[in-house]
Amino acid sequence: MPADGAARVPVVIVGAGPVGVTAALLLARRGVRSIVLERHQDVYPLPRAVATDDEVRRILQAAGVEEEFTAVARPANGLRLLDARHRVMAEFRRTGHGRHGYPQTSMFDQPDLERLLRDALARRPECELRGGVEVTGVGPDTTGPVRVTYRDGGGEHELWAEAVLGCDGANSLTRDALGAVWEDLRFEERWSVVDVRTKAEVRCWEGVDQVCDPRRPATFMRVGEDRYRWEFRLGNTETPVRELIAPWLPASFDGDVQVLREARYTFRARVADRWRRGRVFLLGDAAHLTPPFIGQGLCSGMRDAYNLTWKLARVLRQGADERLLDTYESERKPHARHVIRLAVAMGWAMTGGQDGAATIRRRALSMACRVPGLAELVGRDLSPPLTAGPLVRRGTRRSLAGSHCPQPWITADGRRIRLDEVLGDSFAVLTAAEPWPSLSALAQGLGVRAIPVTGLGDDGTLAAWLRTGRADAVLLRPDRVVMDVVPAGGRAFTDIPAWASLLHTTRSPLPPRRTAGTSLPRSATR
After folding, report:
1. H runs (alpha helix) in 149-263
2. Mind listing the pLDDT tens digit for each residue in 339-371?
3. What pLDDT is stored for residue 393 in this prediction?
4. 502 contacts 326 by C-beta, under 8 angstroms
5. Which residues are CB-contacts of 452 (< 8 A; sequence separation ≥ 6)?
6. CB of 11 within 8 A of CB of 26?
7. Which helix (H) or strand (E) holds 441?
């Protein structure tokens, strides 16, 4: 237990990468103070993650940095599979406007993202970043505050926190402190990642190319105006970079190619066997590792942050049931495992692997690419609905529970804005028609309004979504996941007692009220 006068803080976050800083910003929006500890004094300057999806852009919107991110992001067309001679085998298009209101795939430079996140962090009085420090210990305590020790130029220090978020990467000290170990999902390959800047007219289609060549599988994508990334599976012999990327360059080009980074990685598929002990949690690469073949590594970590922070804030600020925190791992772990297995399957199919069955897989892939509708199916969202649990009351197969509510543009205060700007950071009830008295009473008990989608002034997206899911009303969580559904023809949510006990707080009746911000359209508040 901390001695008198010991430094105490609600939350300590270990690691100031995109996941850690986003978690701090999301907590700050809910009034939770945090200290972020980071071994680097400044943003790590070399590019790493380069792709994200529309769901993560919605999370960046919630963190308050989407406008800045839009200025540094580049929408991508999707994924193409090429054979060894660079002929197109299949094309999987991604749209410029996905379910969450943003392009389904966006390319970016991770240092740019980290800088804008840190700038936002510096503007929040609830957050403090301490860079240039080495965390030396995290003492999980299931019965009280957690002790975190670190050293810097001034010596040894300690903090006592009500919760600790381990966002400290694949070699996580926090994971070791939890006693968690990796579960191997049976994928391991050595690849070279090459980031290049050149003025050459590089042959590209503003999307990702995956070269299905058994001798040298490769991935290529345009990241910025004059920046490109290539990834090549390592072979038995060394090949110069210029020779590797030559197929994408004009034959006559003899100008400069600036190699910004050439690094070798072992792509692995792993999940930690436990993500929580007491008030200590693992997020991002500390909890899971995925091959990069579907561009979901950073995305999974950002989903971790969004899933956990609203629950943790509710426990810390409002005295909600501690069992609410159990749903973080029970929801996120199966989801992350699914995405990792999808990445592994895509990797084996596209690269062919290195075993005796590689030829069979490549032939099967070539045949599958000709199946009508497959390209459209693969081009859909890569993030599946959450599995049923205390905060996801899954009903029929077509139930909307566990999925995300779409985010269309709506009209409010005479302006065109996105849905979440109206709903705020808390719960919300959306209805297909005017809410009936019992539903309005329930919404009032939740501290929110029951909002008919017909009054939101959107393009019909929400009404069509409710019809497709055969729902008369939905209860949205703060992370915009559908928690419960009133089925068509029904008059009540399917299982209120199951989630109400977790959401009940000692300091407010049920969920917190909608945060102040943009007012609702008049037609939605009648």
Report:
1. 173-178, 241-245
2. 999 999 888 876 665 455 555 655 666 665 555
3. 83
4. no
5. 430, 431, 432, 433, 434, 435, 523, 524
6. no
7. helix 437-446
